[in-house]
Amino acid sequence: MEHRDIVIVGGGMVGSALAAALAGNGLSICVLEREAPAPFDPEQDPDLRVSAISPASARFLAGI
């Protein structure tokens, strides 16, 4: 069994942001996701989901 300091369950916006924020701190980080993301297809219809990001979240994301 491999050792990880931190295991993040879910590689969506929040899990990915946490992994990025913790990167570079000398920690062994693993992000678990149920399924691999679908490959990008420029012919596919766009995803119409919308996310609102507060100014504080924008600053956090810019910092990582």
Which key terms come to mind for this protein?
single chain, 64 residues, 2 helices, two-stranded parallel sheet, 12% strand, flat, 30% helix, alpha+beta
Question: Can you give a write-up of this model?
Answer:
The protein contains 2 helices and 2 strands; from the N terminus they run βαβα. It is flat and about 40 Å long. β1, α1 (13-22) and β2 (29-32) form a beta-alpha-beta unit. It has 64 residues and is of the alpha+beta class. It has a two-stranded parallel ribbon with strand order 1-2.
Q: Uncertain segments of ≥5 residues (pLDDT<50)?
A: none
H and E order:
EHEH
Relative helix content: 25-40%
Number of strands: 2
Give the rounded overall mean pLDDT. Answer: 92
**Major beta sheet, specifics?**
2 strands, parallel
Concise summary:
This protein is an alpha+beta fold and 64 residues long.
SSE order and pairing:
Blueprint: E1 6-9, H1 13-22, E2 29-32, H2 55-63
